[in-house]
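Here is one such tokenized protein:
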Amino acid sequence: MIAATLISASVVSTLSAQQAAQPAPKHEFKVAIGDSVMIKRECQKYCTGETPSTWVWDKVHTVRQLGTKRFPDGVLLMNIYSWMCEDCLIPVNGRASEAAKEAVEAQKEEREAFESGKPVEEPKPVEEPKPVEEPVKEDKPAEEPAPVVEPAPVVEPAPEPEPTPEPAPVEKPKTVVVYEQIKGDSVKSKQSFIGGYDRFTIGLRGGVSSLLHSSEKGKWNVGGDVVLDLQYAHYWTKDGRPVDMGILTGVGIGYSQSSMKTGVNSFLPNVASGSYNINYTIKADEVKEHDGQLQLEIPLMFTLLHENGLFFNFGPRFMMPLYTPYKQNISNNENTYINAYIQETGVDVPNNAFLGALADKQEKGSDYGNKFTINIMLSAEIGYEWILKSGNSLGLGAYAGYSVYNSYKNDQANLNPLISVVTPPSDMQGAEIKVNPATKTFVTGLGFFDVGVKLAYHFNFPKKRQNKDSRLF
């Protein structure tokens, strides 16, 4: 008798130890993913603790997810992307459109009473989950401890898993909270991204550029540009889409410069000067003109922003030069000269008789013909941005642009000499010469291209979600 009592006691203790080692049963939901539900009026808090907006109670919502490690008995509602306890939900099942109208009418008096501050206890008759309670009763046999008797010989390994399940749930919620913020499960991280957001950008870019001088008597060279960008963008977001799409515009102000090289070898016969006819011989091996412009830019670009920080902007950029200074150098060597031969007297006037001789001639001016022309460019920017703790972001990338249209036209190109004589020489005195802009003299058309790097600081409104710790400064 004593032996039987001891055996039964050991079996009971074994069963209780094994039952204690088993994890707690999962929550059995009365709704399924895809069901239509409404929120009870008396439920005034989400699982996260925030208070819902007033319109939430009168709207039919769709179940997107059942339970999470943070909220085991919570239900994720698709329309508002928020977690709500299942006890706060009224299932309307497949009758979504009809049930919505009935539920709204049923809660009309309750809503009016709630807004007036009167106590309300009438939403309970609207509940229809009684037939759903039957599966709960059917699940109870699954909790019978009878099958646990079979693994009685596994009594020894049972104590080993006891220490592991206890620390695991303590550490996992910390990482799970971060995961939920990354994926947007939390209300705070998702509320700011319903619909879209705006951003204001201050950017500085610089690189190489050129006006692409089109000329048969010269070739263009590259220079550089520096531009300050002030830009505004609006982005549209969509649940589950990793890329935000938007439109970008703004204004840019900057300075660019490039140059062209050419030469002159001209013979001008029979130039009348009073009673004389003069033949001119003009030659210069190397003439280099530096053309600059203070420019105004207006972008209108399509923009993409990936959740991992990559961004891409593409579209037209309209540019107008506001101020166009130039400077011209003429090389000084034995092949640089200007001579005049007076036919009537047979006098040959040498180069040194000309005022303003060509040696190291420096010509400066404020317009070579490109001011206020319109330039349409196709531009692209690509780079990466880091989200700061303030919610703003810092971006670094590259840019490139190429002109597809420039309104500059020079119908007088190649009709006039680069070097002209203002005052002809005579027996008594020398002559005065003038050097014209090489661009206005030889260039038939202009364009533009630039390429370089860009640094930008983005002000995000509302503040951009801090969704990845690896991207935070």
